[in-house]
Amino acid sequence: MKKAKKQPIHISIEFNDAILPVIECEDGHQRVPLKAIVEQIGLQWETQRKKVQPEKYLGRRLGTLTTM
């Protein structure tokens, strides 16, 4: 008997008339990219990115992961 191959599931969230992707991370948690939210509410991404760096207060509290 063959095992059924798992089909990938794509999840999205609607926010302020935009569709935000939900990403499966390496640690098994699902996350929404912060950049998409920041841009949707009209803030400057670079300013917000600096606030959530791991060594900053918000980065430690939110457990954010930033990439360049």
Structure characterization notes:
This protein is of the alpha+beta class and 68 residues long. Strand 1 and strand 2 form a beta hairpin. The protein is flat and about 55 Å long. It has helices at residues 34-40, 45-51, 57-62, and strands at 11-15, 18-24, 30-31. Strands 1-2-3 form a three-stranded antiparallel β-sheet. It has three helices and three strands; from the N terminus they run E-E-E-H-H-H.
List SSEs in N-to-C order. EEEHHH
* Helical coverage, percent range: 25-40%
Structural class: alpha+beta
> How are strands sequenced across the largest beta sheet?
1-2-3
Number of DSSP-assigned strands: 3
Question: Short description, anyone?
Answer:
By secondary structure, the protein is an alpha+beta fold. The protein has helices spanning 34-40, 45-51, 57-62, and strands at residues 11-15, 18-24, 30-31.
